[in-house]
Amino acid sequence: MALAVEVRNLSKSYGRKQALDHVSFVLPPGAMLGLVGPNGAGKSTLMRMLLGLVRPTSGSIVYNGRPLWPDPTPLMPAVGGFVDTPQFYPYLSGRENLALLAEMASIPVSRVDEVLEYVHLRQDGAERVGGYSHGMRQRLGIAAALMKRPGLLILDEPQDGLDPARLKEMRQLVGAVRLEFGCTIIMSSHAIADVERLCDRIAVFDQGRVRYVGPASQLGGTPIEAIVWEARPMDRALDELQALGVNAHPIDEGRILAPLDARWDLADINAALIGRGVRIFTVMRRAESLESRLLAYLEDQHVDVR
Ligand SMILES: Nc1ncnc2c1ncn2[C@@H]1O[C@H](COP(=O)(O)OP(=O)(O)OP(=O)(O)O)[C@@H](O)[C@H]1O
């Protein structure tokens, strides 16, 4: 299958600072890639290059078979999005800001109301952007990007600074954009749970390098599942679990966790606990979160580097 995005050996230096260090990955059309990793790892630098804002020091970006650099201009109508907070004229309304963009890009002005509707800003479209909340500006940023019906959408931390309700709205909006516009999306985010839900693959950035590209579920090998018991008395439950060969440890005052072992018969274990007079209030099966796997993965990488 033809690839939508091919990033090969991409590097960027600012003086002696290596912001990106030989980054490579490919994306098929319609894929959604989540860029994760610590602050300063190089995510925004990559996104700026994809948006034609920062020139690579070396390496290449190919979009739909055409090189983006050294002259990104011909491809810019196909690439939309923002890095950092989207910027608008604060004294103009949302609609006026988009109308200006439409004029500059020779897009029919009728598109403005379509995209405002799409991001649920039609009613606020007549208000000055200076009075918009942070979440409204993020949505206006997405509206601006959608105006040109991009084949590749770049979203830099669209969830940044949103409260839980707005976070959910943004998650739904990005999911809908992907489905309805069919674009390839590259999104950076520190909202790891959202990345896991929305993206079909992740790239883990660390110190300018990509340490992992692939499905979130396979980061660091097979995801670890655990069993959590809420049981009392804790010390007796722990003794019994140990006697049964279960590698359990307390996670707080009332709960015990053990990594799931396929050889266990959980019913027998629970029966043995009850037989020793342990009262079990809940037994839960829990998958380790992507966030904790990501932290463990990065820690391992640093141990390897040393
Ligand atoms: N214009 C610049 N001049 C000098 N150094 C820069 C410039 N832009 C980025 N850097 C440096 O490059 C590195 C990567 O920065 P980048 O903004 O890409 O990281 P990031 O992963 O997006 O971080 P965050 O999660 O905080 O947004 C950082 O060390 C940063 O200080």
TrEMBL record:
Keywords: ATP-binding, Nucleotide-binding, Transport. Residues 5-232 form the ABC transporter domain. PROSITE patterns: ABC_TRANSPORTER_1 (PS00211), ABC_TRANSPORTER_2 (PS50893). GO terms for molecular function: ATP binding; ATP hydrolysis activity. InterPro entries: AAA+_ATPase (IPR003593), ABC_transporter-like_ATP-bd (IPR003439), ABC_transporter-like_CS (IPR017871), P-loop_NTPase (IPR027417). Pfam families: ABC_tran. Belongs to the ABC transporter superfamily. This is ABC transporter ATP-binding protein.
